[in-house]
Amino acid sequence: MARAVMIDCDPGIDDMMALLTICASPELDLRGVSSVGGNVGIELTTRNARSVLALAGRGDVPVAAGAARSLVRRPAGDKDGAHGDGGLGGIVLPEPPGSADARPAAEFLAATVAAASDPVTLFAVGPLTNVALFYALHPQVAARLERLVVMGGAIGAGNMTPAAEFNVWFDPEAAHRVLTDPGVSVPTTLVPLDVTRRTGLVDADLAMLAKSGPIGALTARALGGYRHGLGAVTPVHDAVAVLALLRPELMTTRAARIHVDAGYGPSRGNTVVDFGSDTGDGPVVEVVVDADVRAVADALLDRVTSLDQQV
């Protein structure tokens, strides 16, 4: 039986890769998508999510728009257009049919999880604002999640400041609520920047993707400009989080407690990953600390290139 999943995302080029990977995976039953402001504004992340689903032949999957901004304090600075003006690296997808679900994301998440006859796993690959609201407003429903898989945080250096990775930097208060609050007990996997920034695609991978068909060609074009000074590797951060669920044997995890700096100093958004603490109030999180880089890339390519044969 396919595993029921949802994804909260802010598409975003790597979010596009994550959505396509889910759609290409028969082991996963995608029940819904919620969008959050992050890589670009909420109107674009919502449209992009719906457009990518339509591209993958899954325009039937409902999409609900969520938070347009962080819970408490708007982040100071921006991403310097890392994903392009439209959020998908300059590619333009057709206007998706229909319309978004009218419910706010937190209500949509709660209703979908509550209605499911089997437990739902939630991927959270953008700022954690929607998930924090879901936990705060519907804690008993949230506790029914089978697992939360988060792409975010960093054990070492960040990518927005020396201390902070983008998703946590964008809304540290939300990350604090989701990753450190013992009030909602949900098994959680954290896939941090340290692993995702070196687990990506090389030029030969992009060439293979481009030759696979129309979907692969569009995806390769979107990914083509998404290197950000990382040399020969094109990161696919959010898609790695999907593989953490699909192919856990390709990842190495360690249990840890997470501390999120929600102060207003230069370390705002920092995630302290405490592998050594056996006691404490915060929940224990499974943190991905290593991955088989080549095997992850191959698995992602296998999934996404198969879509052109499925659609």
Automatic annotation (TrEMBL):
Gene3D superfamilies reported in the protein's UniProt record: Ribonucleoside hydrolase-like (3.90.245.10)
Keywords in alphabetical order: Glycosidase, Hydrolase
Keyword Hydrolase applies: yes
Inosine/uridine-preferring nucleoside hydrolase domain ranges (all copies): 5-296
Highest taxon, organism lineage: Bacteria
Annotated GO MF terms: hydrolase activity
Pfam families for the chain: IU_nuc_hydro
UniProt cross-references to InterPro entries, sorted A to Z: Inosine/uridine_hydrolase_dom, IUNH, Ribo_hydro-like
Protein name: Nucleoside hydrolase
Source species of the chain: Catellatospora aurea
Lineage: Bacteria, Bacillati, Actinomycetota, Actinomycetes, Micromonosporales
